[in-house]
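Subject: design request, 152 residues
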């Protein structure tokens, strides 16, 4: 590659392959299905706030691709994924082999950003976690690219 391409910082905005499109209220779903308990209500309210915070951090990172600090994004992703685990595994199961009774109750809404915008929903918490991790990885790669391209 010509040296000018290697040392020039990226100027385009980061395009994440999928983006969250709908704010979720986890509480509503558990109440509709009669699953509300002290534990599930606490988990759902925390997950609602954590997903909103994480979505804001992804939007911020996508708007500022040239070296936005990613520690806040990583922290919000870690918080959200920790809470999301409660929708995958039962909280009393230390081995992680028993599924949560909340699994499949919440639909996660995403939209592809590289194709025509067609919203899609999936109630698979593992798909949600994978989508979050792919977006985090792309933000980290973009930041690494910006640091490598910036002359010292």
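Subject: RE: design request

Done. Sequence follows.
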């Amino acid at each position: 590659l010509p040296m000018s391409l290697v040392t020039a910082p990226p100027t385009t905005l980061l395009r994440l392959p999928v983006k969250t499109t709908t704010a979720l209220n986890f509480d509503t779903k558990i109440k509709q299905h009669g699953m509300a308990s002290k534990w599930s209500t606490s988990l759902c309210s925390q997950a609602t706030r954590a997903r909103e915070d994480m979505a804001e951090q992804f939007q911020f990172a996508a708007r500022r691709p040239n070296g936005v600090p990613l520690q806040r994004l990583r922290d919000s992703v870690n918080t959200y994924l920790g809470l999301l685990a409660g929708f995958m595994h039962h909280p009393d199961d230390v081995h992680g082999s028993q599924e949560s009774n909340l699994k499949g109750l919440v639909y996660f809404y995403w939209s592809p950003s590289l194709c025509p915008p067609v919203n899609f929903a999936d109630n698979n918490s593992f798909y949600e976690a994978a989508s979050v991790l792919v977006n985090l990885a792309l933000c980290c790669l973009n930041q690494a690219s910006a640091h490598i391209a910036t002359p010292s």
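The beta strands are 18-20, 108-112, 120-122.
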